[in-house]
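Rather than argue in generalities, we reproduce a single protein record, letters for residues, whole numbers for local backbone shapes, just as it appears below:
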Amino acid sequence: MSEEKVVVLNFWPSMFGARVIMALEEKEIKFEYKEEDVFGDKTDLLLQSNPVHKKIPVLIHNGKPVCESNIIVEYIDEVWNNEKTLSLLPSDPYEKAKCRFWADLIDKKVFDAGRRTWTKKGKEQEEAKREFIETLKVLETELGEKVFFGGNETVSLVDLVLISYYPWFHTWETIGGFSLEDHIPKLMDWVRRCLARPAISKSLPDRLKILGRVSQIIKVHEFFYGY
């Protein structure tokens, strides 16, 4: 494994890239990080590595690119799978299917509702906030009394996918005018347990930096379009 070359192409605020980095860190895999400006000129490396979608994140393993964040995490789990590393997906087919179901639900529900909490106003924003909180309540119920979604001892794909959105929670709460602590206290306890893991805390982007970036985007939009 020491001779293998691993490169990650990412854009710093991306929740999709964050989960890939967390997976590598949890597995203690050394990698080279390359920042991509997704709103500027995309590098030749990105365009060559992901010619279909031309998006981050991309994992390049010994010159071979792997695209789409959750596919990348599963790839990492399969390639670096031994008694010295934790497993991010269960071996049992049914449990693995459940894991994939929740990861998919998070990316469909949390991403969309969260985005609309700052891109919409009025009734549309209120509906987005309701959907966002209700989805997190469903996830809180699924977590139950477990320490992590992966169980009481280790994190799973579901944990990495959901915690990758955490740096954006502050932005959505601030702009939307609500507090998640008031609605999902047990899930916020789970957040704190995740952040206590060095592999996770050091891999997530700065939540204040994200809020600043989003605030700039909103100001520019208001200036030109009166939003």
User: Anything to note?
Assistant: DSSP finds ten helices and four strands in the chain. The beta strands are 6-10, 32-35, 58-61, 64-67. Residues 72 and 150 are 18 Å apart (CA to CA). Residues 93-119 form the longest helix (27 residues).
